[in-house]
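I hope you will forgive my troubling you with a question about protein structure. I set the record out below, with my sincere thanks for your time.
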Amino acid sequence: MSFEPFHLGNVPVGGPVPFFILGPCALESEAFAWDMARSLKEIALRTGIHFIFKASFDKANRTSVGSFRGPGLQEGCRILGEISKELGIPVTTDIHTAEQADLAATHIDLLQIPAFLCRQTDLLEAAAKTGRAVNVKKGQFLAPWDTLNIADKMRAFGCEHFLITERGTTFGYNNLVADMRSLYWMRKEGLPVIFDATHSVQRPGGLGGSTGGDGELAPVLARAAVATGVDGLFMEVHSDPANALSDGPNQIPLEFIEDLLVKLIAIHHAAH
Protein backbone atom coordinates (compact mmCIF):
# COMPACT_ATOMS: atom_id res chain seq x y z
CA MET A 1 0.00 0.00 0.00
CA SER A 2 1.27 3.44 -0.82
CA PHE A 3 -1.04 5.39 1.49
CA GLU A 4 0.33 6.34 4.88
CA PRO A 5 -1.35 4.30 7.65
CA PHE A 6 -3.33 6.36 10.14
CA HIS A 7 -5.65 5.96 13.11
CA LEU A 8 -9.36 6.63 13.50
CA GLY A 9 -9.51 7.06 17.25
CA ASN A 10 -8.05 3.79 18.51
CA VAL A 11 -8.60 1.98 15.22
CA PRO A 12 -5.59 1.52 12.91
CA VAL A 13 -6.19 1.94 9.17
CA GLY A 14 -3.58 0.13 7.11
CA GLY A 15 -2.56 -2.12 9.98
CA PRO A 16 -1.66 -5.83 9.79
CA VAL A 17 -5.33 -6.92 9.87
CA PRO A 18 -8.50 -5.33 8.51
CA PHE A 19 -10.68 -3.21 10.78
CA PHE A 20 -14.47 -3.38 10.83
CA ILE A 21 -17.29 -0.86 10.49
CA LEU A 22 -20.28 -2.43 12.26
CA GLY A 23 -23.71 -1.28 13.36
CA PRO A 24 -27.35 -1.02 12.36
CA CYS A 25 -28.53 0.71 9.21
CA ALA A 26 -30.51 3.37 11.06
CA LEU A 27 -30.69 5.02 14.47
CA GLU A 28 -34.09 3.52 15.20
CA SER A 29 -34.08 4.82 18.79
CA GLU A 30 -31.54 5.97 21.36
CA ALA A 31 -31.99 2.86 23.50
CA PHE A 32 -31.59 0.60 20.46
CA ALA A 33 -28.38 2.36 19.42
CA TRP A 34 -26.87 1.95 22.89
CA ASP A 35 -27.83 -1.73 23.04
CA MET A 36 -26.26 -2.41 19.64
CA ALA A 37 -23.09 -0.46 20.43
CA ARG A 38 -22.58 -2.20 23.77
CA SER A 39 -23.20 -5.63 22.26
CA LEU A 40 -20.78 -5.01 19.39
CA LYS A 41 -18.10 -3.68 21.73
CA GLU A 42 -18.34 -6.84 23.84
CA ILE A 43 -17.99 -8.96 20.70
CA ALA A 44 -15.03 -6.85 19.55
CA LEU A 45 -13.28 -7.39 22.88
CA ARG A 46 -13.84 -11.15 22.71
CA THR A 47 -12.65 -11.47 19.11
CA GLY A 48 -9.82 -8.93 19.35
CA ILE A 49 -10.99 -6.87 16.37
CA HIS A 50 -10.82 -3.11 15.93
CA PHE A 51 -14.19 -1.62 15.03
CA ILE A 52 -16.02 1.61 14.33
CA PHE A 53 -19.69 1.85 15.29
CA LYS A 54 -21.99 2.88 12.45
CA ALA A 55 -25.59 4.10 12.32
CA SER A 56 -27.37 6.66 10.13
CA PHE A 57 -29.21 9.67 11.57
CA ASP A 58 -31.17 10.15 8.33
CA LYS A 59 -31.94 7.61 5.63
CA ALA A 60 -32.34 10.34 3.04
CA ASN A 61 -32.56 8.10 -0.02
CA ARG A 62 -35.31 5.69 0.99
CA THR A 63 -37.30 4.16 -1.85
CA SER A 64 -40.69 5.30 -0.50
CA VAL A 65 -41.68 8.74 0.77
CA GLY A 66 -43.36 7.05 3.74
CA SER A 67 -40.33 5.06 4.90
CA PHE A 68 -38.66 5.63 8.27
CA ARG A 69 -35.73 8.06 8.06
CA GLY A 70 -34.30 8.55 11.55
CA PRO A 71 -33.94 11.14 14.33
CA GLY A 72 -32.23 13.80 12.23
CA LEU A 73 -28.85 15.50 12.25
CA GLN A 74 -28.59 17.09 15.69
CA GLU A 75 -30.24 14.33 17.72
CA GLY A 76 -28.51 11.55 15.79
CA CYS A 77 -25.05 13.05 16.08
CA ARG A 78 -25.61 13.70 19.79
CA ILE A 79 -26.48 10.04 20.36
CA LEU A 80 -23.47 8.82 18.39
CA GLY A 81 -21.13 11.28 20.09
CA GLU A 82 -22.23 10.14 23.54
CA ILE A 83 -21.81 6.48 22.56
CA SER A 84 -18.30 7.25 21.34
CA LYS A 85 -17.30 9.02 24.55
CA GLU A 86 -18.77 6.54 27.01
CA LEU A 87 -17.75 3.33 25.24
CA GLY A 88 -14.44 4.58 23.89
CA ILE A 89 -15.15 3.61 20.30
CA PRO A 90 -15.00 5.76 17.15
CA VAL A 91 -18.28 6.33 15.29
CA THR A 92 -19.37 7.02 11.74
CA THR A 93 -22.52 8.22 9.98
CA ASP A 94 -23.63 9.55 6.60
CA ILE A 95 -23.87 13.19 5.72
CA HIS A 96 -25.94 14.32 2.77
CA THR A 97 -25.30 18.05 2.36
CA ALA A 98 -22.30 20.33 2.72
CA GLU A 99 -24.12 22.18 5.50
CA GLN A 100 -24.25 19.04 7.65
CA ALA A 101 -20.49 18.48 7.64
CA ASP A 102 -19.39 20.91 10.35
CA LEU A 103 -22.02 19.93 12.89
CA ALA A 104 -21.48 16.23 12.30
CA ALA A 105 -17.73 16.64 12.63
CA THR A 106 -18.09 17.88 16.22
CA HIS A 107 -19.34 14.41 17.21
CA ILE A 108 -18.29 11.98 14.47
CA ASP A 109 -14.84 10.45 13.86
CA LEU A 110 -15.41 9.30 10.29
CA LEU A 111 -17.74 11.17 7.94
CA GLN A 112 -19.37 8.94 5.35
CA ILE A 113 -20.38 10.10 1.86
CA PRO A 114 -23.29 8.06 0.40
CA ALA A 115 -22.66 6.29 -2.88
CA PHE A 116 -25.22 8.35 -4.81
CA LEU A 117 -23.34 11.52 -3.74
CA CYS A 118 -19.75 10.41 -4.30
CA ARG A 119 -19.19 12.88 -7.16
CA GLN A 120 -20.73 15.90 -5.38
CA THR A 121 -17.69 18.15 -5.22
CA ASP A 122 -19.13 20.62 -2.70
CA LEU A 123 -20.01 17.80 -0.32
CA LEU A 124 -16.57 16.22 -0.62
CA GLU A 125 -14.92 19.59 -0.04
CA ALA A 126 -17.03 20.36 3.02
CA ALA A 127 -16.27 16.96 4.54
CA ALA A 128 -12.57 17.23 3.77
CA LYS A 129 -12.25 20.68 5.31
CA THR A 130 -13.65 19.56 8.67
CA GLY A 131 -10.34 17.84 9.34
CA ARG A 132 -12.11 14.55 9.98
CA ALA A 133 -11.38 11.35 8.08
CA VAL A 134 -13.84 10.69 5.25
CA ASN A 135 -15.23 7.43 3.89
CA VAL A 136 -16.53 7.80 0.34
CA LYS A 137 -18.86 5.07 -0.86
CA LYS A 138 -18.09 4.18 -4.49
CA GLY A 139 -21.13 4.95 -6.62
CA GLN A 140 -23.02 2.01 -8.10
CA PHE A 141 -22.43 3.68 -11.47
CA LEU A 142 -18.63 4.01 -11.23
CA ALA A 143 -15.83 1.81 -12.53
CA PRO A 144 -13.08 1.07 -9.98
CA TRP A 145 -10.60 3.35 -11.74
CA ASP A 146 -13.09 6.24 -11.61
CA THR A 147 -12.43 6.44 -7.87
CA LEU A 148 -9.04 7.98 -8.66
CA ASN A 149 -10.93 11.18 -9.48
CA ILE A 150 -12.51 11.08 -6.02
CA ALA A 151 -9.09 10.59 -4.48
CA ASP A 152 -7.74 13.54 -6.44
CA LYS A 153 -10.56 15.73 -5.13
CA MET A 154 -9.97 14.70 -1.53
CA ARG A 155 -6.26 15.41 -1.75
CA ALA A 156 -6.87 18.72 -3.49
CA PHE A 157 -9.07 19.71 -0.54
CA GLY A 158 -6.32 18.80 1.92
CA CYS A 159 -7.70 15.46 3.10
CA GLU A 160 -5.22 12.58 3.12
CA HIS A 161 -7.18 10.42 5.56
CA PHE A 162 -9.94 9.09 3.35
CA LEU A 163 -11.30 5.65 2.47
CA ILE A 164 -13.02 4.27 -0.62
CA THR A 165 -15.79 1.74 -0.03
CA GLU A 166 -16.85 -0.79 -2.64
CA ARG A 167 -20.60 -1.53 -2.34
CA GLY A 168 -21.51 -3.20 -5.59
CA THR A 169 -22.25 -2.03 -9.12
CA THR A 170 -25.64 -1.68 -10.81
CA PHE A 171 -26.40 -4.83 -12.77
CA GLY A 172 -29.53 -4.45 -14.84
CA TYR A 173 -32.69 -3.54 -12.95
CA ASN A 174 -33.04 -3.91 -9.15
CA ASN A 175 -29.77 -5.74 -8.79
CA LEU A 176 -26.12 -5.24 -7.88
CA VAL A 177 -23.01 -7.28 -8.52
CA ALA A 178 -19.82 -7.19 -6.44
CA ASP A 179 -16.70 -7.43 -8.57
CA MET A 180 -13.81 -8.58 -6.39
CA ARG A 181 -11.38 -7.38 -9.03
CA SER A 182 -12.25 -3.81 -8.08
CA LEU A 183 -10.76 -4.35 -4.60
CA TYR A 184 -7.46 -5.38 -6.14
CA TRP A 185 -7.42 -2.57 -8.71
CA MET A 186 -8.22 0.20 -6.23
CA ARG A 187 -5.69 -1.01 -3.66
CA LYS A 188 -3.11 -1.31 -6.44
CA GLU A 189 -3.56 2.44 -6.97
CA GLY A 190 -2.64 3.04 -3.33
CA LEU A 191 -6.15 3.69 -2.05
CA PRO A 192 -7.34 2.38 1.33
CA VAL A 193 -10.27 0.14 0.41
CA ILE A 194 -13.26 -1.00 2.45
CA PHE A 195 -15.70 -3.67 1.28
CA ASP A 196 -19.35 -3.18 2.18
CA ALA A 197 -20.71 -6.72 2.38
CA THR A 198 -24.30 -5.87 3.26
CA HIS A 199 -25.09 -3.11 0.75
CA SER A 200 -23.46 -5.21 -1.98
CA VAL A 201 -26.27 -7.75 -1.68
CA GLN A 202 -29.09 -5.21 -1.98
CA ARG A 203 -31.80 -5.38 -4.62
CA PRO A 204 -32.56 -1.63 -4.88
CA GLY A 205 -36.29 -1.04 -5.07
CA GLY A 206 -36.71 -4.79 -5.39
CA LEU A 207 -39.73 -4.92 -3.05
CA GLY A 208 -41.59 -2.18 -4.89
CA GLY A 209 -41.82 0.34 -2.07
CA SER A 210 -38.56 -0.67 -0.40
CA THR A 211 -35.20 -2.26 -1.08
CA GLY A 212 -34.84 -6.02 -0.92
CA GLY A 213 -31.73 -8.11 -0.87
CA ASP A 214 -29.99 -11.43 -0.39
CA GLY A 215 -28.73 -11.07 3.17
CA GLU A 216 -27.58 -14.66 3.37
CA LEU A 217 -24.93 -13.80 0.77
CA ALA A 218 -23.34 -10.99 2.81
CA PRO A 219 -21.06 -13.36 4.79
CA VAL A 220 -20.13 -15.11 1.54
CA LEU A 221 -18.99 -11.86 -0.07
CA ALA A 222 -17.24 -10.76 3.12
CA ARG A 223 -15.16 -13.94 3.10
CA ALA A 224 -14.28 -13.44 -0.57
CA ALA A 225 -13.29 -9.80 0.04
CA VAL A 226 -10.98 -10.66 2.94
CA ALA A 227 -9.33 -13.37 0.86
CA THR A 228 -8.86 -10.88 -1.99
CA GLY A 229 -7.40 -8.26 0.34
CA VAL A 230 -9.01 -5.19 1.89
CA ASP A 231 -8.16 -2.65 4.55
CA GLY A 232 -11.53 -2.92 6.24
CA LEU A 233 -14.97 -4.54 6.17
CA PHE A 234 -18.31 -2.73 6.46
CA MET A 235 -21.24 -4.82 7.66
CA GLU A 236 -24.59 -3.65 8.95
CA VAL A 237 -25.74 -5.66 11.95
CA HIS A 238 -29.15 -5.78 13.64
CA SER A 239 -30.49 -7.64 16.66
CA ASP A 240 -33.76 -8.34 14.81
CA PRO A 241 -33.38 -7.81 11.05
CA ALA A 242 -36.88 -9.04 10.27
CA ASN A 243 -38.30 -6.06 12.16
CA ALA A 244 -35.66 -3.48 11.24
CA LEU A 245 -37.01 -0.08 10.22
CA SER A 246 -34.54 0.18 7.32
CA ASP A 247 -32.77 -2.34 5.07
CA GLY A 248 -33.74 -5.37 7.14
CA PRO A 249 -33.26 -7.95 4.35
CA ASN A 250 -29.53 -7.20 4.11
CA GLN A 251 -28.40 -6.79 7.72
CA ILE A 252 -26.53 -9.58 9.48
CA PRO A 253 -28.24 -10.87 12.65
CA LEU A 254 -26.32 -9.89 15.76
CA GLU A 255 -26.32 -13.50 16.94
CA PHE A 256 -24.25 -14.55 13.91
CA ILE A 257 -21.68 -11.74 13.72
CA GLU A 258 -19.17 -13.06 16.27
CA ASP A 259 -18.70 -16.37 14.48
CA LEU A 260 -18.36 -14.55 11.16
CA LEU A 261 -15.71 -12.17 12.53
CA VAL A 262 -13.63 -15.08 13.83
CA LYS A 263 -13.80 -16.74 10.40
CA LEU A 264 -12.88 -13.53 8.59
CA ILE A 265 -9.78 -12.96 10.72
CA ALA A 266 -8.75 -16.59 10.17
CA ILE A 267 -9.18 -16.19 6.40
CA HIS A 268 -7.08 -13.03 6.46
CA HIS A 269 -4.22 -14.75 8.27
CA ALA A 270 -4.41 -17.78 5.97
CA ALA A 271 -4.47 -15.70 2.78
CA HIS A 272 -1.98 -12.98 3.68
About this structure: The CA atoms of residues 141 and 169 lie 6 Å apart.
